[in-house]
Amino acid sequence: MAAAASFTDRPGALEITQRLAEICGPPFARFAGPADEVAGRTARWVAVPGGPHAAAEVLRLAAAHQLTVVARGAGTKIDWGAAPAQVDIMLDTGRLAGIWHEPQGSPLAEIGAGTPIRAVQATLDRTGQRLPIDAPSPGATLGGVLAADEAGPLRHRHGSPCAQLVGVRYLDADGELVSLGAAGTALLGRAGPAGGAAALLGTGQVPGLDVARLLCGSQGGLGVLVSATMRVQAVPASRVWVTRPVWTPLEVHDLVRAVLAARLDPAAVELDLPVPVPLPRRRVHPDHPSVLGRPDHPAVAGRSAGPAAAGSLVALLEGGPADVAERAERLVAVLGGEAVVGHAAPEWWGHYPFAPGETALRIEVPINDLHAAVYALRDAAGGPVPVRGSAGIGTVHAALPGSLPPERVASILAAVRGVLLARQGRCVVVAAPAPVRRAVDLWGDLPTLPRLRAAKEHLDPHQRLAPGRLPGGL
């Protein structure tokens, strides 16, 4: 790829700008501004195509001039992952929006990639339906959620949003519109043996992988999503949250095992372990296992119960009113302690524990080893760190202060990954300040990297789509 093709002040820049304006319309094509960044890398142009065919023309223009393209939805996760090597055209999907195919009573809906999830849910709710998706990023679009493989509490029962995917329409690096079913069958566009998706699956270059699912989590590095056909379901008649205070990761481990063994079919099992701060002690018996051995316990401190900081373990139950009420009663008996039933989610539900500017980690580990991962993180960091996420499936997020120097973050990652290696777990840096992002290995060991490299080489051999955003600098 010619480096000279990336500068907007080179000969031909005006021609490219005019062509983008012709494709998208004058108000929807411009030189990029300071806010048009991807993980700190500023774009050259911003194009907002009005439909799939206009988006295809943008990609064809980029191919003709050897320009790179990075897709952007609402920008809620634009600083996640690695910075691309180069961003010539930022392709904004905001006009690729709408629910395009939603027959009454159908369990499927085709949704434009630029459609905000909230808008999708509001539209479906009018017919008593929903997407079983609750990605935490406020304002996120469906395309952005799929491109980042972002999931919220409902992943416990329904899996990630990519698990709800039935088919996609996407643009390849040459600007060809391809439609794929969930099994990887090419349906439209360049669907013959020479087509990128069909060839990838037919030649066995990436055995067992389906291109539609490969696009999930690819950060736009394998194709630009145009629309996705998703499963929809009826809105549950009743929802309740059963909350139990917790203090230690080991206590969480025992409680989660008890919840899962009770076979109460929770829709979500979420954990929130905040950094300890002085809070009034809840009324818990001094001999309860959750407080025995704590420094502020009367038997240890020689005084009456003092301040403590409780985390929360919360299970969501969904279904018919009578069924949910019966299961909630059984769950309270299982959790014991101060378990309470509520009809509204806790304030922290469906939110990340990290803030902009902090180093955000995602830990994935078998549920029986989640407590070991949290203890390892605490030990490496020299104290408790905020941890929140789906304890019922062993996927949580944690936050490290943005003020930590890169070498300190690197040492914490090395320690935690060392513990997780023997437990078949992973620790990924989701987002971080630029100095940390440049200095540390964001992904750690990735067994699927050879297959991902094969997919990139086949689908984007000229490195035009978000180059460098994928693991291994792909």
Describe this structure in words.
- The protein has 474 residues and is of the alpha+beta class.
- It has 14 helices and 22 strands.
- The strands form five sheets. It has an eight-stranded antiparallel sheet.
- Helix 1 (13-24) runs antiparallel to helix 2, helix 8 (249-261) runs antiparallel to helix 11 (370-381) and helix 11 (370-381) runs antiparallel to helix 12 (406-421).
- The radius of gyration is 24 Å and the shape is globular.
- The model is unreliable at 1-8, 182-209, 278-285 and 288-308 (pLDDT under 50).
Overall outline: globular
Please state the structural category: alpha+beta
Tell me the helix content: 25-40%
Instruction: Assess the beta-strand content as a share of residues.
Output: 15-25%
Supply Rg.
Answer: 24 Å
Q: What number is the mean pLDDT?
A: 85
Largest sheet: 8 strands, antiparallel
Unreliable segments (pLDDT under 50, ≥5 consecutive)?
Answer: 1-8, 182-209, 278-285, 288-308
Number of strands: 22
Distance between the termini: 14 Å
Order of strands in the sheet with the most strands?
Answer: 18-15-17-16-20-21-19-22
Count of helical stretches: 14
Features:
474 residues; alpha+beta; 8-stranded antiparallel β-sheet; 6-stranded antiparallel β-sheet
Gist?
With 474 residues, the protein is of the alpha+beta class.
